[in-house]
Records
---
Amino acid sequence: MEKVVVSVFVSVVLGLVLLLLGLVLGVSVFGGREKSSPFECGFDPVGSSRVPFSLRFFLLAVIFVVFDVEIVLLFPAVMGIGGDWMWLGGYFVLVFFLVVLFLGVVHEWREGSLEWES
């Protein structure tokens, strides 16, 4: 029981330290036209809203969201690797999940979806 309490305490302290570090380092002193603009996607906010939208930008955003969600799904497995509660089948499921994630990245890479400047 003590190991769990220590793990939770360390996780909370580490999260707070990273949060404070991000807040301190994230303060930007430099401002500009791009930062004060309501859009930071490269489009000029003045003009028609019926401009052709870049499908590559949308695809890259969707890929980011998918892999971001999958990292969140990996978090409990990573926390349980050193613990006694993770059974042998859990390790196989974790390895299978990582293989599927890796194959997805390889597929997107070979398809050229991760290339922004092409």
---
Amino acid sequence: MPVTPKSSEIPRRGTGPAAGPPTLRRATLGTSDIVFFVVSAAAPLTVMAGVAPLAIMLGGVGAPAGYLMAGVTLAVFAVGFTAMTRYVRHGGGFYAYITRGLGRPVGMGAALLALIGYNGMEIGVYGLLASATQDTVTSLWGADIPWLPVSLAGLLLVWYLGHRSIDFGAKVLGVLLLAETGILVLLAGGVLLEGGAHGLSADAFTPGNIAGPGMVAVLAMAFAAFTGFESTAIYRREARDPARTIPRATYTAVAFLGLFYAFIVWTVIQAYGSDQVVQAATDDTGGLFFTAITTYVGSWAADLMHVLIVSSVIASLLAFHNAINRYGLSLAEEGVLPAALGRVHPRHRSPHVAGAAQTALGLVVVLGFALAGADPYTELLLWVNTPGMIGLMALQLLAAVAVPFFFRRAGHTENIWRTTVAPAVAAVLLAVALWLVATNVELFTGAGTGVNITLVAIVPAVFLAGVALALRLRRSRPRLYAGFAAEPNE
């Protein structure tokens, strides 16, 4: 039977400079700042221009409804998740929530899954940065540049931005996010002013189109497009009035992404016409958005969109980098990762050691793929991103399952909708979403069966490794185990 330590024996987190070493900058981020981090991680412009054409090609004109359905599912999930934010004051994000509901072994499995998931989502995107930059340079100037220097420059830039203070990063992301959403709004405005190719139509939302055979693939892509929205809780220690800020940021991010994605995809369908858009997407998947904005706004706007896709990718990299650093900081404070990763910069108040370590890991992976002669998009991006995406979806599912178990034991004043019904519905829907992505993984990787099985298998393997680590710590280091995911003031 494990030994439960006295509360005085559980390692503490400092509450400010006077309590010891520097800590994260408190009460810095408002709702809009956290929304910038979350939405930037999703990279709306990249998702729309790079993935939505494939969704249209496979799912037809009903594709916009797929994004709405994914948004509704995640909004239902947010009901229970945000209810828990009033009771869980830990800064460790999802793993703390999962630990409170499902126990320390599952919580530690979730913690390792979060590390792999966020690292996979970020490091793979350095391949996308290289590919997008190559395409932009070729499109604008007709030049061909090697991909590795671009990825290395991205690593350096993201490290520097993450090294700076969190409010500095929020300002950078705010500017980049406004720019990438602005170009999509410009496209939508041009289409609406012209009335589309054959007039505006609501065909995308008719039952026949929504129930089309390709909607399974669309739903898989739609859920993937929201990856990273759950990271609101990671910024708890830096948020102003987190009990209010985090729920507001979560709902705002989900609502914005769901409505914005659906609106932009519907707009592009209008640009070509419901009877011609699928063929247009099939003929030129990568150029669908660029052709539309050239037609309805001008070639200058297409050139600007090329540039803004690069900045969109940089914003996504920075958002995931910041999330990873805070997970690393928290797990270092728990004693699960080396204590050095828990150091905070005395001036910028950033987890700078965790940031440097994450950048070093990214450098190793990027150089490894480069030395192997891999393609930056089809291999570095897709192969590294895929297990990261599946891992984060699995975290969402575990968090939804954890909510009713937590409230069954905790004293609370919440209603049954928030504590039981919504989390249960969300768990079922998220399980379906995870199944859709895992069984349609070839849409994301373009790889063979062997590669796909390996990439999917990474997720349960990492989770089980975390569970095994927890069971080992329970025997060998009971004090550390008992203090895992403990409240700061316990």
